[in-house]
Design a protein that fits this description.
The protein is α/β, with parallel strands linked by helices. It contains 7 helices and 8 strands; from the N terminus they run ββαβαβαββααβαβα.
Length: 236
């Protein structure tokens, strides 16, 4: 899936008396020469915004494709330490490091059509065999640290979570709620009375169905990639 650019925005706004921390765009560690704005989501900007909020309850609005994993972890912990109540509202996408940040909410709300995306840590690397093995080991440790954050909310086992991370899973609001990664979908008022809802399925069955679906999708994707690279798998 192609990632679309989301305009950078990290600021505290007043919305009819409610403090809202708007986190839109890439997650980075700080201002760099190649960035075209000072408004990127970074720990320093988040800390400044929370200082301005002065302990009042806040709504954190998220729309991001993610970015730097350690910046995401840092922002997660900054929000967890905040004195006021933190309600996270996903406005569009909370992907990768953005989904880590979302887990800081005392309550996590997802708007209509929104998604979470979770996956294992990845990076670009170059070097000899020993250096690349070390990179792989480091990525495993980073993925474990991310897993620990998701597990503060995830309703299943660590093995089930890792299966979803391996599959690079795009989760709808309904799926996120079923897995414990969100609390509520913000639904629009229906234009007309709707039919009574069917009795709800067993939560465990729903969770197993979601995990099974994403594992199957990943296997199909791996098969397609392996087929396409069958004659290109030798070093020269």
């Amino acid at each position: 899936m192609e990632n679309k650019v989301i305009k950078a925005r990290c600021e505290l706004v007043d919305n009819n008396g409610l403090k809202e921390l708007v986190l839109y765009g890439p997650v980075v560690n700080g201002k760099a020469w190649y960035l075209d704005s000072d408004e990127y989501i970074c720990p320093q900007n988040v800390m400044a915004a929370l200082k301005e909020a002065d302990g009042e309850d806040i709504i954190v609005r998220i729309n991001t494709n993610g970015g730097d994993v350690f910046a995401g972890i840092s922002i997660y912990n900054i929000l967890k330490d905040y004195k006021g109540k933190v309600t996270v509202k996903v406005d569009g996408m909370a992907a990768s490091a953005g989904s880590v940040i979302a887990m800081a909410g005392d309550k996590i709300l997802m708007g209509v059509g929104t998604m979470l995306m979770i996956h294992n840590a990845w990076t670009f690397a170059a070097g000899n065999a020993d250096e690349l093995r070390k990179v792989a080991d480091d990525l495993d440790k980073i993925s474990d640290s991310i897993s620990n954050i998701y597990m503060t909310r995830f309703s299943g086992t660590i093995e089930e979570l890792k299966a979803l991370l391996n599959a690079e899973s795009y989760l709808t609001a309904e799926e996120s709620i079923a897995l414990g990664l969100a609390d509520e979908e913000i639904e629009e008022e229906p234009a007309e009375p709707t039919e009574p809802k069917e009795p709800e399925e067993d939560p465990e069955e729903i969770k197993n169905s979601i995990i099974g679906k994403y594992i199957a999708m990943r296997k199909e994707s791996d098969k397609a990639q392996n087929k396409g690279s069958f004659y290109m798998n030798k070093f020269r």
